[in-house]
Every structure is written in structure tokens, then in C-alpha cells.
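Exercise 7.
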Amino acid sequence: MKENIQIREELIEVIDHLTDEQLNKKVNNEKWSIMQVLEHLYLMESKLVKLMTRTFNEAPSEVIQDKPIHLATDRTKKITSPPHFEPTDQFITKIEMNEKLNQSRKSLHEFVELTKDHKLDDKGMPHPIFGQINLKQWIPFIGVHEKRHIEQIRELKNELFIK
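Solution. The predicted structure, written as C-alpha cells, is:
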């Protein structure tokens, strides 16, 4: 969880000086705006925590081996987001998004606290690339996924000529 906290701090730092207009501006219709990337991160974290909580309450299965989740930061491989993690085209302010991100992170902290004394490698959920990932790895995966999108935000800032 410590790494997730550091990655979130980096995310906030990368967008800190941007205006609501800059955050919501699209480079083109093929790419998300920076705000849409942030909304995607919020949707993913909040929905994953709900799924993780549901999975935690199910009966255990056999141990699920760790996957190379660190590979998710490789931006040379384009991955299409599942529809339920797709952002809207709605204009969102930085204040609104910070509240959403804080809420989803609070939910993750609560899940970690709830499960801290439990074995989490015998319960898992599917990932479109890695297959079945155990709950123990889903926690750091949220940070790894966020790190991938921090790089995307940096790329978008460059394309928008924002420093």
C-alpha cells in the first residue's frame, strides 16, 4: 500500500498546476483528456475495490500464483479499457475529481484494513491480460495501473504543450 500512496502523490503532483480547462481538453477525438484518464482511474479503483470485497467474502480456492503485474506499466502495448471503466465526456473540475479519487482511495484503505490479517492469494479475479490475479496482487496492481496512466498524462501534457 505504501507504493500506492507514493504513486498517488506523484499523480496529484503531475496535475497540480493544471486548470480545469487544461484537464478537460482533448488532443484529438482518438485520445482521452487528462480528466478522462483521471476519471478512468477513479472508476477502476472504486469498482475494483467493490469486486475485491465481494471476492474476499467468497470461499477460498486453490492458491493463485503471482503474475508479472509490473508489466502493466509498458505503454508500448495498447490495452482497451473494459466498458465499465470507460470515462464520460462530461466536464469535471479538479476539485470534484480530487474528491472522487480521495473517496476511492479511502475505500481501498478500508479494504486493506479489513483484509490485513487474512490470506489473499487463494481468492482471485480475472484480468483481461494477466488472467486470474489473486487479491493480494490486486492491491498493488491498482498502483501499477495508476503509474501507467501517469505516463499517459505526461504524454498528453506534452501534446497539449503544457509543462
